[in-house]
Amino acid sequence: MAGTALTAFSHSMEVTPMRIGFIGVGNMARAIIDGLLANKTVAGSDLYLHSGHIEHYGDYAQTIGAHVMNDNAAVVANSDIVVLAVKPKIYGRVLDVLQPAFAEHKVVLASIVSGVSLAELSQHVPAGQPIVRLLPNLNVKIGAGMTAYAINDAAEDDAQTVLGLFDAIGKTMELNEDDFSTFVALAGSAPAFAYLFIDAMARAGVKHGISKADAVRIAAQTVAGSAEMVLAGTTSPSDLIDQVCSPNGSTIRGYLTMEDKGFSSSVVAGLDATIARENGGD
Ligand SMILES: NC(=O)C1=CN([C@@H]2O[C@H](COP(=O)(O)OP(=O)(O)OC[C@H]3O[C@@H](n4cnc5c(N)ncnc54)[C@H](OP(=O)(O)O)[C@@H]3O)[C@@H](O)[C@H]2O)C=CC1
Ligand SMILES: O=C(O)[C@@H]1CCC=N1
C-alpha cells in the first residue's frame, strides 16, 4: 500500500529469517501467508503448517512449498513463532494439549484469535510463555492490512520478531486490550463492510446500465482512491465531502438522500452489533 500516514506505528526492524508455524490454515492464516510470500518476507520452506483436515490445506501447503506437520505439537517443535489461527470456540482445547510442547520449545505465541485476551490465552500455556495478541484484517493478503497488537510481559524481548512480520504486510498499531472489540469492528470485520458498500454502488451502476464487472471496478477504484486521499493528507473526511458537494449540484442530493435513508446511523448500528458480539453478546 502506498500510503505512509501510519508510519508512526511502524517498527523499523529488519525481519530476519525464521521458522513460522501456523496452527489452523483457514482464510486468515492464508491471507497472512500469501502476503508474506508475495513480498518475499518469508519463503514457503520457512512455514510449518497443521490444520483441521489435510484435504482442506494439503494442496495449498504443497503449492506454496510449506512443511505439513502431523500435529500441532510438531508445529511448535519446529517453529520460532507459532501463529494460532483457529476459531475462538476451540482455542483453549487446542492450547491445553500443547502445554508440554510450549514448555519444551522456546517459541513466541502469536494469537490472532478474535475476542481472546492475553490473560485468557495465558491460562492455557505454561507460565512465562511469550504471547503477542494480534488482530489483523484480510487486507494483509495484499500488503495493505491493519493490525492491532498487545503483548504480555514475557514477550517484551521477542515481540519485535512477530511485529516485523505484520509490518511487512500492512500497518500495525499497539492497542489497549479494552479497545480490541472496537478495533474488530473498525478494521477486522470492516473489509466486509467496505465490500458491502462497493457491491451496493456496483448494483446501482447495473441498475443504470453498466455491466457488473465494470461497475465493481469503477466503485472499488473510487473507494481505494478516496481512502488514499484521507490517509495522504490532513483533511478530514467531512471536509472532503464538502469539496465534492457543489452548491445545488448532484452530489449533495445523493448525500442528503443517503443520510435521509439512515446511512451513517446504519453504519454505526452495524459496528455496534459487531462490538456487542465481540464482547460476548448474541
Ligand atoms: N477471517 C478474518 O477476517 C479474521 C479472522 N480472525 C481470527 O482468525 C481465526 C481464524 O479465522 P478464519 O481463518 O476466518 O477461520 P477459518 O474457519 O477459515 O480457519 C480456521 C482453521 O482452523 C482449522 N482447525 C480446526 N480445528 C483445528 C485444530 N484442532 N488444530 C488446528 N487447526 C484446526 C480449520 O481446519 P478445517 O477447516 O480443515 O477443520 C480451519 O482451517 C479466528 O479466531 C478469527 O477470529 C481475526 C481477524 C480477521
Ligand atoms: O467474523 C469474525 O468473527 C472475525 C473477526 C474479525 C473478522 N472475522
Quick structural summary:
The chain is α/β, with parallel strands linked by helices and 282 residues long.
How would you portray this structure in words?
Keywords: Amino-acid biosynthesis, Cytoplasm, NADP, Oxidoreductase, Proline biosynthesis. Catalyzes the reduction of 1-pyrroline-5-carboxylate (PCA) to L-proline. Pfam families: F420_oxidored, P5CR_dimer. NADPH binds at residue 72. Belongs to the pyrroline-5-carboxylate reductase family. With 282 residues, the protein is an alpha/beta fold. It has two domains: 7-178, Rossmann fold; 190-278, Orthogonal Bundle (ProC C-terminal domain-like fold). An eight-stranded mixed beta sheet has the order 3-2-1-4-5-6-7-8, sandwiched between helices. The longest helix is centred in the last third of the chain and has 21 residues, at 212-232. Helices cover 50% and strands 12% of the residues. Mean pLDDT is 94; it is low at 1-15. Helix 8 (180-188) crosses helix 13 (263-278) and helix 9 (190-207) packs across helix 10 (212-232). The protein contains 13 helices and eight strands. Bound molecules: NADPH dihydro-nicotinamide-adenine-dinucleotide phosphate and (2S)-3,4-dihydro-2H-pyrrole-2-carboxylic acid (A1CAB).
Key features of this structure:
282 residues, alpha/beta, Rossmann fold, ProC C-terminal domain-like fold, 2 domains, eight-stranded mixed beta sheet, 50% helix, elongated, binds NADPH dihydro-nicotinamide-adenine-dinucleotide phosphate, binds (2S)-3,4-dihydro-2H-pyrrole-2-carboxylic acid
